[in-house]
Structure prediction request, 252 residues.
Amino acid sequence: MTHSPTVHHVSANRGRVRGAYILMTPENLVENALPHLEGVIAKPLATPRAVPACFGEYLLEFEAGGRSTRPLGTGFENFLYVLDGRAHVEADGTVHTLEPGGYAFFPEGVEFGVETPGASRVLWVKRRYEPVPGVAAPETVVGHTDEVTHHPDETIGGTWAPLLPDDERYDMAMNVMRFDVGSRFAMVEVHHQEHGLYMLEGEGVYYLGDDHVEVSAGDFVYMAPYCPQSFYATGSTRPSYLLYKDVNRDGF
Ligand code: UGY
Ligand code: MN
Prediction:
């Protein structure tokens, strides 16, 4: 009979991947321009140039009156989230006015326009939709972070709030995660999905791959598939972040 001795690992986590994340602080971000955006400084956070990212995420800094000059988002599904200021977002002939915490998702095939009466900062996430035979296409979603359910989750020591419907039509999730001061993940996650994480509030320490890095409001973290990850909430105020995750697909 094979003898299986009890194993006592010295390390709390043994999962490993090297080079699996990128941390960009506000001081790292370089100003860019993007076509058909007038009066807007674009700061790319993630693009497919960060191998193996399959999505794009951009911080758009609008000056007063900044706007798109033709419909955007062709060939992609798109998500907009207002960080501050106010944005008028138009799609399919309807104008949605988004305040901070407000967001809009447009499925592939729905182009959008955006303009801001005053200075405003908007996050833009885009990716190619992955259709599956027999699964219906997703629909436009417009909402506000304060109007969605924030579910308690003891594995993260806080709450998570899905901004998009949690069903298989959607191949991307955008979740707002909030943490009690002093809380921590109950586990180190290792999963096949990738993340784009934008720190909205507060500060903490992120365990990424083999490192512990300090993060605070305004930071962006790209986590590649299988990047070991865990969060510790530090500081004196509640940290929160907006998290992109690819979901409901098998990874092929
Ligand atoms: O849903 C998630 O994968 C989430 N718990 N990950 C994270 O916050 N790093
Ligand atoms: Mn995760």
